[in-house]
Amino acid sequence: MSQQPERGDTGLAGLDCAPGETLLSVRDLRTYYESGDLIGGQPVKAVDGVSFDVKKGETIGVVGESGCGKTTLGRTLVRLEAATGGEVRVGSDDVTELSGEDLKAWRRNAQVVFQDPESSLNDRMTIGEIIREPLDVHDWGTPAERRARVRDLLEKVGLQEEHYYRYPHQFSGGQRQRIGIARALALEPEFVVLDEPVSALDVSVQAQILNLLMDLQDELGLTYLFIAHDLSVVRHICDRVAVMYLGNVMELGPTDELFEDPANPYTRALLSAVPEPDPTAEIDRMTLRGTPPSPRDPPEGCAFSTRCPVKIRPDGSDEVDESTWEAVEVFRETLRARSRTERSLSERARELIGLETRFATVDEVVGELFTDRDIPVSVKEPVDQAADLAREGDEDAALEHLKGELGSVCDHESPEDHAVGTEGRESRCHRHAAEYEEPSAVGPSVGGED
Amino acid sequence: MSAVDYPVDEDEQTLLERIQDEPGPALKLLAVVVPLFAVEFGAVASLVMSLPWSAVGSALPGFLQGLAGALAGVGDALANLPTLLSRSVIDNSGYQLPSGEWVGTTLGLSPAVAWLLRVLLVYAYGFAWMAVGWWVYLVYRDNYRYADWAPVDDMVNRFRNHSWGLLGLAIIFAFVVLALFAPALGPTTVEANISDPYLHTVEYFDEEAGSVQEIYVGDANRDSQSRGQGGDNVGPLSYDQFGRFHPFGTLPSGKDLFTFMAAGARVSLFIGVLSLLIAGGIAVTFALATAYYKGLVDLGVVIASDSIQSLPQLLFIMLASFVLSGTWLANLYSGGVVLALLFGFTGWPGLWRAVRGPALQVSEREWIDAAKSFGQRPSVTMRKHMLPYVVGYLLIYASLTLGGVIIGVAGLSFLGLGINAPTPEWGRAVSAGQPYVPTQSWHISLIPGIMVVIVVTGFNALGDGIRDAIDPQSDVGTGQQDESAAAGGGA
């Protein structure tokens, strides 16, 4: 529809692949945010080794809790954030290293629809100016053609031509999101990152916007990366879904299969949190303990190991009962939280002279967790020793000790992506390895399975 | 498909075409603007001709010089056209015969009445332009703008209902008119009365001689001094013995205080505006750059601004103006330029700090990301997507700071460090009248002092009004900020 130069000229020939072929191939992508400190400080590992392919014409969903890195992933793909490592291949080009004309070509072909329609439109510009701006930046056609294109786009997203000279203030949230979509589509991109495009909207408007997005995809052959935390929306719109946790993709596969038969423990937990419309239905919810670990300091083994309900136990701990084992995990979680907490100078001083601080003492924690329990020696010894270490204020050493004594493969090794299901689904969990039981065999039942 | 597939629409027209389609309101506007401009056309022409054209003319190649000469002749002729607001239209200089009849003044009016008429005429003219400006906005908004509503409409409406801001606007407008029309407003002129009194004469009726005498202004001034207790005094709204009317009385040197004040307003306004253009320009450039790039750029500017702010501004300006006093820079505009530069280069950190917050805030908005995502250039992003949100705050703080600069300049002149004599400056009048405050010559210090207070209050009120207009939720700078900005001069 435009008089763009042939893409071959710009070097991004990979964009012209046929529908169904791989448009983007993300490999071990990492995006770290440097800490604000001038010296030292751990970077925030927002995206920590993500690999997947995006096929032309599909909608790939990215779901996960707040802070799991899904938005950063989307922003890295459109070069709003600089990748720390890994690559994003389009044909033979690496998006993370494009510059000059190639970067401009990528910017033209990769667009974003933002989450908050209140914040994504400049209030001091008319709708026409807002939608026209990408066209102006890329010198698209003549000014009169640009105006005509904007009017055409307004109609395409369900607004009227007369809205050209209105200001964003005069529109509702849903209409503003339509304007944002029109702006993203102005340059006829191949790839659009939809960053929670409906989560700020009323439910009734959400459906309209989703249908608009799907209609536009059919009409223009767009490829979507759909970031969301609302699972029902993802199920409605996406062809494939990637489930993210702490910067990692835990499970990736076709939407229906993943929702019907989730393989990864984290997916299972996430899906079991979906509310059931039938109030009489008895569901065995999998509630996760604690909060996600800090992305500054992710666990060494599996990212989900700190909260996983079906974590593999170390060898020789079969006789330990379930609740004791959970007490051990809670103890580790508590130590981890303590080691992360910044202590003020006065708190350190109080600790030093033995005054009470706002931190419960280690003995209190241990007492609460382990008294009235029949603890086998194999567990008791490491716990006591860790408590000793923690009492001296060395939580890190205590954690190391517990990990060494009571840690399993989940704590030590990062899991591989295992193929699961029938349609090229992958899940990152040690339990998929032959020597362990499948997550579905040990955990509560979830989704469509019996 | 190519872009040509789109029907090229013809409905977007330039402003000129829109006016051609519906010329009525624009013609009505023009019918008022043209005469309003025509009556002062001579003044504008003489302003243009007062620029150093001869330097340009001599640089031209020969065949063009004749043309330039002809143009200069036309220009001079235009510059000599009579204008409505010139002193000769309503002349207040003359002498009074023993019969009480005034000779030389327009229509034989008394100089006080003639002067008052001229002042009223000038202010009516000034406020007519203000009304025309408002009318232009209305005509454009209602007849020629595509958008039925724009965010600026709401701001204008909020400002219209802000009585404190409107009062500020009125005061500042009156001050600007005083500065712009200073030569026409004074009962006499700076050249005749203040800078070259021995090159000008006045006529008066000498009762002893029984005839009209001519006397140098300088000699006349010596007999119309205001020297407090036991000395001569020419107070406000009074005549001296030479039939000259002094609306604000005279200075201890016998010069006319009102003429001095009007010319001083020009100096103050010039220094204030120039220094704020410098400070505001630096501040807004840095604010946009630091908010957009953050990180090291921000840190660098923080350090630079902190180093400047750690200097005691007034002391530093004193020192620097003393150091620079021997140079050519110090002679530009009687030292006004050097003061403006110093206030500008030491004043930007405060303004930058004030607009950095809003700039950082707007830099976090998603439309900045949107602009980055389709590859907008940083400079354009800053100008289009950030500047409109920052410039309002800049206006607020600039108007608050302007009062501080005026106080600062007055303070420096009071100390004898500011504007070189004999160029009028308000602070010097305050200083000159200081010994006479408790005497009948109280007017010398008090009137300029009160004028400073009124003008500074006006700028603060205007800033308040703009703030409430652009951002009704914001509560920036209540109390403390206003005070510190107003007291920025510290004098």
How do you describe this structure in short?
The complex is a heterodimer of chains A (450) and B (491). With 450 residues, chain A is of the alpha/beta class.
Question: Can you walk me through this structure?
Answer:
The complex is a heterodimer of chains A (450) and B (491). Chain A contains 17 helices and twelve strands. Chain A has helices at 7-10, 70-77, 100-109, 127-137, 143-156, 173-185, 203-220, 231-237, 255-260, 265-272, 322-340, 345-352, 362-370, 377-391, 395-406, 409-412, 439-442, and strands at residues 22-33, 44-55, 59-63, 85-90, 93-94, 110-113, 191-195, 223-228, 240-245, 248-254, 417-420, 425-428. In chain A, the strands form two sheets. An eight-stranded mixed beta sheet of chain A has the order 6-7-8-3-9-10-12-11, with helices on both faces. Chain A has a four-stranded antiparallel beta sheet with strand order 2-1-4-5, with helices on one face. In chain A, a hairpin with a 2-residue loop joins strand 9 and strand 10 (248-254). With 450 residues, chain A is an alpha/beta fold. The radius of gyration of chain A is 25 Å and the shape is elongated. Chain B is mainly alpha-helical and 491 residues long. Among the domains of chain B are: 86-129 and 196-255, no CATH class; 257-489, MetI-like (MetI-like fold). Chain B is built from 20 helices and six strands. Chain B has helices at residues 15-21, 23-38, 41-49, 53-59, 62-79, 111-144, 151-160, 163-180, 182-185, 190-195, 217-222, 257-293, 295-309, 313-323, 336-363, 366-373, 378-414, 426-433, 443-470, 480-486; strands spanning 95-96, 102-103, 201-206, 211-216, 238-239, 245-246. In chain B, strand 5 and strand 6 (245-246) form a beta hairpin. The radius of gyration of chain B is 27 Å and the shape is globular. Chain B starts with 14 loop residues before the first helix and ends in a 5-residue tail after the last helix. The relative contact order of chain B is 0.09. The A-B interface holds A 1-3, 75, 78-80, 103-104, 107-108, 110-112, 114-116, 119-126, 133-134, 137-138, 140-142, 144-145, 147-149, 151-152, 164-167, 169-170, 180, 183, 187 and B 1-10, 12, 146-151, 365-367, 369-377, 380, 384-385, 388-389. Chain A: InterPro entries: AAA+_ATPase (IPR003593), ABC_transp_ATP-bind (IPR050319), ABC_transporter-like_ATP-bd (IPR003439), ABC_transporter-like_CS (IPR017871), Oligopep_ABC_C (IPR013563), P-loop_NTPase (IPR027417). Chain A: This is Peptide/nickel transport system ATP-binding protein. Chain A: GO terms for molecular function: ATP binding; ATP hydrolysis activity. Chain A: Residues 404-435 have a biased composition (Basic and acidic residues). Chain A: Keywords: ATP-binding, Nucleotide-binding, Transport.
